[in-house]
UniProtKB/TrEMBL annotation:
Keyword Transferase belongs to the record: yes
InterPro entries tied to this protein: ETR1_N, HATPase_C_sf, HATPase_dom, His_kinase_dom, PAS, PAS-assoc_C, PAS-like_dom_sf, PAS_fold_3
Species in which this protein is naturally found: Nitrospirillum iridis
Pfam families (alphabetical): ETR1_N, HATPase_c, HisKA_2, PAS_3
Keyword Nucleotide-binding: yes
Domain PAS: 197-269
The name this protein goes by in its record: histidine kinase
Enzyme Commission code(s) on record: 2.7.13.3
MF annotations from Gene Ontology: ATP binding; protein histidine kinase activity
Amino acid sequence: MTISDWLLDPSGLTPHGFCLSWLPGLIWLHAGSDAIIGLSYFSIPLTLAWFVRRRDDLAYRWVGHLFVAFILACGLTHILSIMTLWVPAYGAEGVVKGMTALLSVATAAMLWPLVPRVLALPTPAQLSRLNAQLSRTIEEQERTAALLRDSEAKVLAANSDLERRVAERTAELSAANTRLTAALAERAAALDALASSEAEYRASFEAAAVGKVQVNPQTGRLLRVNTAFAGMLGYDPAELATRVDWSSLLWAEDRTAEGLEFARLLSGEISVYVRELRFRRRNGSPVWGRVSATLVRKAGARLPPLMLAVVEDIDTMHKTALALRESETRLRLAAEGAKLGIWEMDLARGLCWVDRRTAEVTGGTLPAETWFPMAGPEYAAWADWIHPDDREERAGGLRLLQTGAAELVQVQYRVRRADGDPGGELDTGGGSDQWIWFSHRSAIVARDPVTWTPTRATSVLIDVTERATAEAALREAKADLEVVVAERTAALKQRDLLLREVYHRVKNNLQVIDGLVMMQAAQLTDPNARQALMGLRSRVYALGLVHQQLMASPDLQTFDIAPFLDELATNILQAGADEGVTLDIDVCPLTVNLDFAIPLGLLVTELITNSLKHAFPNGTGTITLRMRPQGEGGVLVVVADDGVPSLSNGHGPAMAEEPGGYRRGLGGTLVKGLVAQLDGTIAMRFDKGTRADILLPTPMVAS
């Protein structure tokens, strides 16, 4: 035999069409399917080759060439399958399959080392978390800047209002003190003359808007208080007059200092004393008051008989001043905590002012918290600290602010660190530790009312070095991730393609076995042997149908078993049942995998086949197939018929039965083994036919 005969027409072998009984429908179905698959296999590598040729930046081009060769070889095997339908060129087909096997092994062996490299790359979730964290940092910095601007405006407004109110209060107090001193002097000089006007004085005393108090300086007891003073402390005037000591109304911590000042007044060291101190309200809370006190002296008396005091309620003003100080403290802490620097510019006079943090950034080049000229040497030296590539952008932003072309200007530039090397090589990329990234936001806060030119501007410097570094790292990681995602996508597509090919080949091999069994059964004359082979054919068909379902599954791992059981039962009925036998199928949807589908398919095959063989001697009846979920995560499968009970079959005595209702023989052994493989239980009943109730655990499939 020559090599050409061995390859193209080996003697003693028949074409593949013989296996298909030369049925035209099957012959042309196989030929057409293989032709379409072969043409598709030739188209795919051409597309891959064109893609690899156009993408010069691919890191693993050899993977594409391997897949081109492998898929071309696969396509050639399908073309040769068409030829073997008529020509038994199994030698040539085997050579091509051997080449395909070598290319498959080489491709798989060279793909495995790439897996650790792909797995070591960062995931999209990690990059998303980094991006989200960066976004939150930026939002927090922007909120801090907005709060800083609002707080500064409130501080300026509160400061101006407080200065105005203090000036007004001081003027009022000075005038009141002057009037009070004059009135007290007149009252001491003309005590008898004022007796007639006591009613008028009492009315004025009670109606005063500020608190008024008369105290006996010898005993410290209150002699008279007006409504305003009593109301300030939460008392009724009658509760205080003649029964309460002056010192008992003071806050405990302020009594010592007030006693010393009162002693100076009694000794004549001072004639009037003005103090701000805390009083204790009736409910125990403090209230701030400004006390202006003087003594009414009587000539010849060793001790003065009366002390007159005016008490002004300044609790609101004091709390406002305290809140202002707290606001200033919070503003300073916020600026320090947020790494902010403050920069003030008097554009009308050409002067600048910076806080300590900005001065520290410049290494002391700019003086802290003092005004200096923008045209002076300090400002010029500061410009040298800015990165050369960023100086023009910052200067342009300053020009927009000075000319009033923009109300708000924001620029970002790099500044040399104070501890860096001034004479060192500049890192124009901004990646060196020598530079600090600043976001400089400037806004016009005052303009000339006539010319409307800017006269004052405020700036905030935010250290954004970490953000700039993170953005650069994110850009690099994004580029790397895009490459990895492209490679992983291509690898997944190839994996799906190979897995579908495996399912396809397994199904084809099972179909070949099915054809061989059918041919062998056709040549047998023994009905029992033929029936055994047909039972084997049903089992092989069930296995092939499982792989067909997996091949069409989107994830290549799971599928809905409801249409599978429907098609399986229908095929078994069409292959071996009389026309009078019908099916009643009601199967709930259930997602299963290969490990669950194969045993269940074989189990249903055995039970339906057993009913067809023994239950319908008259050729009529119904086979029922049910599947529904049970409580606590179980599935109930019912296979029943309404024919003759399986144990007797209407043909003599009952056949031997094992415990649990199993029929002895291969079928019963398979049923028992398959139920055990599925971790289930089966119960057989023989009332008005044969019924098998199979309780199985719900299959666990990966999501």
